[in-house]
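[audit] Reproducing an earlier prediction to check determinism. Same input, same settings, fresh worker. If the tokens differ from the archived copy the diff job will pick it up downstream; this log only records the rerun itself.
[audit] input (383 residues):
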Amino acid sequence: MKPLKIVICGLSITSSWGNGHATTYRALMSELSAAGHEVWFLERDRPWYAENRDLPNPPYGRTELYTSLEDLKLRFTDPIASADAVIVGSFVPEGIALGAWVIQVARGLRVFYDIDTPETLASIGEGSSEYLSRELIPKYDLYLSFTGGPTLKRLETEFNSPMARALYCSVDARQYYPAESRSCRDLGYLGTFSWDRQATLEEFLLKPARLWSEGRFIVAGAQFPSELDWGPNVEHLAHLPPSDHRDFYNGLRFTLNITRRNMIQAGYSPSVRLFEAAACATPIISDYWPGIETLFEPGTEILIAEKAQDVSRMICGISDRERRKIGERARARVLNAHTAAHRVGELERHLRDALSRRNRYSMSKAERTSTCQQTPADNCVNQ
């Protein structure tokens, strides 16, 4: 595919504080640039990200901050208008107004990239979405979704997207790999606080920690309530920048994956933490959701738990030899299918297919117009 100019209007690439978007955008930007594409990332300058920038100057592509929608229009109309593809991400501030403007201005493909698809569709149904509306979806040439499976058909049939495709998160295999670690904890969880994950965290980590007082446990993530009682053998880190994620996973015997309620209901919604941990060959214990078996084989590449006793049995009963084998098999799966390079290849195919579809539609429309110009008006009413 010839090099493209791609402009991404995303939540954040400079700060991973309190969001999982930054790591995804960093991996994509890095691989897109390595593939020869010209990539811009436009980020709204927000105080909480400004105070927690762990990558203020990404070393790939071009990153620009803007202060308001008016500032974006004033400074970046030309790059957006001339791009081969403009990608608007979920949770972008004033995303509905921004998306409507991009659709009006951009001459290339207009793409929506949803890193939060189940949450997005639920909020649209409730009328509370601030970054995407039901009316905008058909106007985007392509809807890229973190959620695959049946949700893609729903986007096309119920929400009238002209083309919906899965673009899962991924991992940069150059940054995530097995390595020796000085720390050794029995079970760890990495993730921002979410009310609909907290009950599972209590069941899968805090309860096993109480049951096994000699075990060592750790939770890393922002926005947890200050009054939460972690217990004597659970360490909590308020924030862990991506640069420390590899060491975090390599310092664990097992890691925990917990899925949000809407993502469980939609299925086919892998977290980036799955791929990061697997790339480090750290065995994963996860809750179950439909489609997880299409990514990892339960029992051999990933462990599925339903209750605290399952977790306790796994972390105390699985031998080190078998534990290492599970991690190694998961790592092999990720390297074969879920790296950022794989995702860029998929993105290129999706963009090519969307462009082909739009060209066919434009040609068909032109042919209909030409036919009407050559045919009496009464015969063209229903064409």
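[audit] rerun output stored. Observation attached for the diff report: Confidence is low (pLDDT under 50) at residues 379-383.
[audit] end
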